Amino acid sequence: MIAFIIKRTFLMIPQLLLLSVLIFFLAKQMPGDAVTGAFMGKPNVSAEQMEKIRQQHGLNDPWIVQYGRWIGDAIRGDFGQSFVHKQPVTQLLAGRIENTIWLSLATLIVTYLLAIPLGLIAGRWTGGFADQLIVTYNYVSFATPVFVFALLMLYVFGFVLDWFPSGGSVDIRMEEGSMEYMGDKLKHLVLPVLSGSLLLTYSTVQYLRNEIIETKVKDFVKTARAKGVPENVVYNRHILRHSMLPIAAFLGYEITGLIAGSVFIETIFSYPGLGRLFIDSIMARDFTVVTALVLISGAAVIVGTMLSDIILRIVDPRIRLG
Amino acid sequence: MQWIILVIGILLAGCSDAQSRVVKDLPSFPLDVSNQNPPLDNGEMTVALVSSDPFEGTLSRPFYSGSFDAEIMTWFDESLLSINSDFEITNEGAATYELSEDKRTITLRIKEGVYWHDGEPVKASDLLYAYELLGHPEYAGERYTFTIENVVGMDAYHAGRTNTIAGIRVPDERTIHVTFKEATPSILTGFWSVPVPRHHVGDVTAGELTMRELEASDKIRVTPIGFGPYIIVKIVPGESILLERNENYWRGRPQLQSVVLKTVNEAVVVESLKKGDVDIARVPVDQYEAVKKLGNIDLLGDLDMAYSYIGFKLGIWDEKKKENRMNPDAKLANKLVRQAMWYALDNESVGMYLYHGLRFPATTLIVPVFDSYHDVENLGRPYDPIKAKALLDEAGYIDVTGDGYREDPNGKPFILHFASMAGGDVAEPIAKYYIQNWADIGLQVELTDGRLHDFHSFYELVKSDDPKVDIFQGAWGTGSDPDPSGLYGRQALFNYSRYTSDLNDQLLKAGTSEKAFDTEYRQAIYKDWQALMVEDVPLVPTLYRYELLGVNKRVVNYSIDSRSENRHVWKWGVSE
């Protein structure tokens, strides 16, 4: 297992390198640069001054030269300076990543906490009232756009019922590090997390339900039943374990999606995270930030799939042997 | 969706309606709040930074770029010199000024009792430090502008040839002399008087830290100080800021005990105002109707310092000479056609239906915010398709093929390409409506590439004088100086129509000459210039706009009137 992890980690390096070249090249193909964005509508700045700043930042060099410079620094852990935010990219990302991790982790946990029982119930009592209800919920949630749903949640629970704060990640008056501070952070997380996870359950529920329906007529389950194993044990031990395989396989992708995929949630709840930063940086042609973020999410994909593989190996003896 | 329906409605209704409708009165908004009660001594106010993005948090005047950072800074920092409603410097601020006989040297004297938030006095050398940063060879911000370049010795300092700026002298810590190369009234509207606390942020000129370290420093992002009415206590990055009363504020004791500024998404502005979550919030145009209905809110509104325009490509930017050059063979070289295209635009309907009446037809290229310089008597070219058609006939553009579109004087097809920016719900309907307007007078206009362009592609096309663009639509924000040469001068890169003329050169020069310190003279010059632009139409100013603020009725002493004493932040309070 350890050899496997080491092997995968080393495989990551060329993958990330290739990704960075690709992203850098594509980013430079976009029209405009950071100077255009920042100076647009500032008629008092002379053409010479703008040219001088382009020179200073090396924006006029061919992309391959810029890439060489960038990768050289990146290997040393310096991802460059954000043109828009005027601070080192690492410092900028460090400030935002905490929120994103909180949000993604909580969303992931809540999604599984909801989806697994629902999938189990729907699969076990197929065609029953509960199943119909769950399947309906699944279709509705699949079809609901996240920004509409998030706004609705915010309106109902944030404004009408006033149960939860309507935006931000924490109340500014909270003393950092205190219990209240943590509690307040959690309170601010509830609505964004629910808005995300209530809509994210569909794939998990659907896969789990289908797997269970398929598995419960398989020979090994029949054998278990014939031996007189109680029905609950049949489900919880034999069927569930087998049905969790595709879920485990998808875990990696779910993590990746969460890192950059919560743009709408972040925007509506004024929750400063990486998703919004990514979109804004693309719009502002703040390339240093864009490349760093793509690398982070690229790394997340690779780590995520590795995690999936590891889990699969633990859960499924057939893979372990192979 | 509702926009699309609306626009189809307008298009179906045709333009005859709009033509016959009398010009409606513009909406008018109060500039002051209605509440007259005395302010609470321990009041707290919450102000929304209405945006879908977190604020950047670069809280230093030389370096910031976001408009929210600017808004945040008004609470804790200020200029040494105050300005009047014409954006000219006055002696009401924390310093007084004197202009020398030859109008080339300004002398600032800082008043008694002006202290930074850490208790240090605000020094003349702190203002000098701002100039040293702005002109520094490594400075990469957007504020190395004309008024900075205009300082004597700035060129040498900016090129790194000298370590000091020859034109700035600090005889004692309360006095500073700044000498300019050229005497121009732009000094009065653009003079930089925001000091930077050298002792707090560190000294780049003494090698204590580098420019990059300063830009990224916690001293301007986490613990910034100023000498304004409120002191920053805490910042949750990108999200909210807590400020408390500055008991040592030089004007007096600020009314509020504390202030919270926080980011609020556009989509929830109405609910936040209604619930009282925020006391003051900028109201997005599409939520105007909803906010109007709220009982607990005063809607204040004033003209915004910006205008939308439609430009005509008349030449190219000469990279060698660094100036604009007109092309006599440009498709729209005939000014009669351009005049006709202005008459064809029904901007009133656009403002009324697509912007709820919060935008209205523009007349000249100097916005009405500049009370003294905007020519109210010049009505531009209001919607008149009949006149437009007559002008095109006169110019020889006649429909010879009978397909409903005019051909050029040689009988060749005359097709114009229109570049317009994507963004917001109304971008597409507006572009389509203008194309319809031009079709009505027989001009065939098509979108460049058949679609709208995003911000960067749009400006790439326009800036590089791409032949795919004959007409382009954009918007300009105006600075505090009425001088239009940054946008329309011969050497101005931003003069995207590439229009030049000798008269234009003369007027722009006269408008910033030493003689133009005389307001009446400058008014006359700018009146002529506005008339010239209406005559030559290098671009059409299309819409002026209102900016709206929703203010909770518990707010007192609050005004957006540039003449009111209550425009000052320290006066604002809340009652209960």
Task: Record the SSE blueprint.
The complex is a heterodimer of chains A (about 325) and B (about 575).
Chain A lengths: L1 H28 L4 H6 L7 H10 L6 H13 L13 H36 L4 H15 L2 H15 L18 H37 L3 H8 L4 H31 L1 H6 L5 H11 L2 H29 L1 H5 L1
Helix pairs in contact in A: 1-4, 1-13, 5-6, 5-8, 5-10, 6-8, 7-8, 8-10, 9-10, 10-13, 12-13
Chain B lengths: L1 H19 L23 E7 L16 H10 L18 E5 L5 E6 L13 H11 L11 H4 L4 H5 L9 E5 L2 E5 L6 H5 L7 H4 L9 H6 L1 H4 L8 E7 L3 E6 L12 E7 L4 H7 L4 E3 L5 H5 L4 E16 L2 E4 L4 E4 L8 H9 L3 H8 L4 E3 L23 H11 L19 E5 L7 H14 L3 E4 L7 H9 L7 E7 L7 H4 L13 H10 L7 H18 L2 E14 L2 E2 L16 E2 L2
Parallel strand pairs in B: 1-8, 14-15, 14-16
Antiparallel strand pairs in B: 2-3, 3-5, 4-5, 6-7, 7-8, 9-17, 10-16, 10-17, 11-12, 13-17, 18-19
Description:
The complex is a heterodimer of chains A (322) and B (576). Chain A has 322 residues and is an all-alpha fold. Chain A has helices spanning 2-29, 34-39, 47-56, 63-75, 89-124, 129-143, 146-160, 179-215, 219-226, 231-261, 263-268, 274-284, 287-315, 317-321. Chain A is 78% helix and 0% strand. In chain A, α5 packs across α8 and α5 packs antiparallel against α10 (231-261). Chain A starts with a helix and ends with a helix. The model of chain A has no long low-confidence stretch (mean pLDDT 84). By secondary structure, chain B is an alpha+beta fold. Chain B is 28% helix and 19% strand. Chain B contains 19 helices and 19 strands. In chain B, strands 9, 10, 13, 14, 15, 16 and 17 form a seven-stranded mixed beta sheet that branches. Chain B is globular, with a radius of gyration of 26 Å. The chains are: A mainly alpha (322), B alpha+beta (576).
